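Example complex used in Figure S2.
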Amino acid sequence: LRLRVDQQKCEGHNRCYSAFPELFDVDDEGKSSARMEVVPAGWEERADRAVANCPEHAISVEQ
Amino acid sequence: MTGSVGYHAKHFYIRHPDFNDPELIYEVYDEMRDSGGLAYSDQPTQIPELTKYAEGHWEAVAFDACEEIVHDWDRFTSNASTVHPGVTPRRSFIMLDPPLQQRYRKVVNFYFSPRRVERAEVTARNAAAALLDDIVEQGEGDLAKVAWGLPGMVLFAEILGLPVAEVPICVQLSERALHSDTEEERDLGTQKFNEHVNGLIEAKSTEPRSDGLLDMLLTTTEIKEERLSLDEVCEHAQILVAAGLETTSGLLTSAYHYLARHPVERQRLIDDPSLIPVALEEFFRFMGSVHGLNRVATQDTEVGGCPLKRGDLIQVNFAAANRDPAMFDKADRLVLDRERNPHLAFGAGPHRCLGSNLARMEFRVGLEEVLRRIPDYRITDQTKCKFVGNAITRGFMSLPVAFTPGPRSTVASG
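Predicted assembly (477 residues):
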């Protein structure tokens, strides 16, 4: 599974970073990015929850 | 006089005194949502000046409609003066549209970023400790005082660069501006509040520079090619102080009140503090203190099947969106461990609440410290829990509680 944060859509809510800092990082302005390109085995559910809770629909997980 | 849910659904006015009942407003939202994404009201929005330009307004109450509106600043402007030229143009970025609004945000976001907020947590812990020390030995006190003090102390010291000693007077002035009974008193209160904040900015020119946001606004040339005018900085200071003092505080009071009345839920949080990060998003969804912010339609358009005309006023009601059963299972219940929760308590789009990360941290600290130090608090007199709900932000003004007395903290207060 590939994890991606759309930088155009991210508005810096940081819901993803505050819930799953192991998957997401933030810059000094609060924009989020994925820490890794591929979701490690066993963390799929965390990635799905980050997708579901992003108020900007900026996070995607794809095969 | 108390109107029925049906009455309020047709004549929605957020300033109506009936909404000093904490629950009624949510029943009204449910009824309004039955008629579509937007419900028309023949009553004004919370911005009195705009009543000159439109008799009534549209209340956006469905999740989808609210989301669509806040993401489309081209069709729905935050700057009413672009559509209604008679409206006094405001200069703070909350009342502007991109791209200028984004130039401000690029510079100010840094001061509210997760890293900056993480650094401020120590100050929040110390503030909570000092506020709880005021009551902890007596075994009784007013929890509203804790809630109304904490966010201001963090905001002033860590973010804005204002003296912490100013917090109580600013809280008092902003309460008068927002919660006075008549529009005239609120206008006068706003004027006094603004004058006071302007004084704090003017004092900065003779004080040593801090690394706070307001000092930066006074000197930066990154937003415009020249420095911002003193008036522009003052207008920003007014909105930042007001927004920072009233919002998280109001929510904290509502959460303290809710947990006093739901001891099983409270015990869950005490027994398993790891639940708090998930639970706090649910408090934001379920009882977020800011209900509606305004937009103006820039063209004839349509949202959620509802036709709008250029110039129409819309109040985007995030609290109503957050109770929309089309988006949330058991929307009318607080579910502490709700896992799917993309709430709009902080709005969305380019105007996403600037202070959302700060609010989350302050709220968490306020909750954790009360549950840790006075875990068995109970409300002593429900009739003295004064709730103000007919304002831009909602919350309890007093929350008299009793609890098993405990020792003062060892943390240095101040």
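The radius of gyration of chain B is 21 Å. The longest strand of chain B covers residues 292-297.
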